[in-house]
């Protein structure tokens, strides 16, 4: 389903002869943002072409498929959602043909008023094909009576509430937009006359495009076929709510996000963590890959040597077949293996970026002990996660979040660590900038964009299509 569990990566390309190939490479660089499905819509003047499939970018596309996506304009999307059955009907970009030609939409984020909008549209006769909140965007644009597409797009965006970075491809050009609070990132780059817009700057790097700037919160940009761009709406002075979890966990360390390099931000998190929770230890290591920068920062701050204590198997997909024999903690074991020569007899600091359910930490602490560690000190480079996210990051409900149900000493006992230290909010914002500019609802419960009633229900949006009556 859609609802609160979307995590996605998006890329838009305007100008090169074979834009779909650029989009494909961009999606490769954004694979970490979504592994469930992948898709590209390309356009050649007034004609559009689409291909979507389940799985990784490398599974979904091959040369022949890319050849079938001609044109100098393209948008691409990687999707990941954890709940509900993953279906192709929910893969993006969405593509429709309506009275004004084709309309393709790729969305990263989560709309908090999608139910209300959808109900209103269905009452007027719209027929929805998916359970994605993104589909309301398509219907809203198509339903606008204003003959100017620019105004139809702007008026549609005015009705959306919540978190979104959006790419909208039409025969008139490519629209790129960020919600008024700027929850989710979006970067703009150029290579010659070609324009690239992507969730993260690591996608621009791969394409050889130079990062020009990030779109501002609330900004709407229109990019034309000749590479020229026009700001249809500049950033208003509304409060910024940059998702702090992008810096902590989600984005790639080689990206620049919200004006700061992600590796720089994470090293600072690690330094703060070492200052707030010192440990008498022989080595520091990361739970790779997302916490590597934070563990390096922790080592730099404490002077304790950084080691490679855990090796991650990169080839484990999101679903793998659990073998018949009973292997304790197999899900974690198949992904991480301790390096016993580093660990045996040592007092170790293990740095992770976040604890969600606590199952990974518990299993890892067990593995590290089995490998002979004398002491295990777990350090977490974020404050405790106690609340679900409704703005586009997969953080489960409170009953599954260990920190919503246990105190820090209880969590330490549960995971079996000799000590446990979480970063404070003060430490977090000393590292990444002002708290006023960020959203930390998953840690604080402070939802700065109001949620519509019923959004807490996991399957709220999905059941709507079955139950909504005129
Ligand atoms: P858990 O076993 O549920 O506590 O998972 C903790 C691990 O999941 C940490 O190593 C995090 O790096 C990682 N993690 C944190 N947030 C997410 C997320 N939204 N999606 C997938 N993995 C995550």
Bound molecules: adenosine monophosphate
Q: What best-fitting shape do the alpha-carbon axes yield? A: globular
First-to-last CA distance: 22 Å
List low-pLDDT spans: 458-470
What is the beta-strand fraction? Answer: 25-35%
How much helicity do the residues have?
25-40%
| Sheet/helix structural class | alpha+beta
Average pLDDT taken over every residue: 92
- Walk across the major sheet and give the strand order: 3-2-4-1-10-9-11
The tally of helices reads 18
CATH superfamily of the largest domain: Aminohydrolase, N-terminal nucleophile (Ntn) domain
**Count of the separate structural domains:** 2
Radius of gyration: 23 Å
CATH architectural name of the largest domain: 4-Layer Sandwich
CATH class of the largest domain: Alpha Beta
Biggest sheet statistics = 7 strands, antiparallel
CATH topology of the largest domain: Glutamine Phosphoribosylpyrophosphate, subunit 1, domain 1
Number of strands: 23
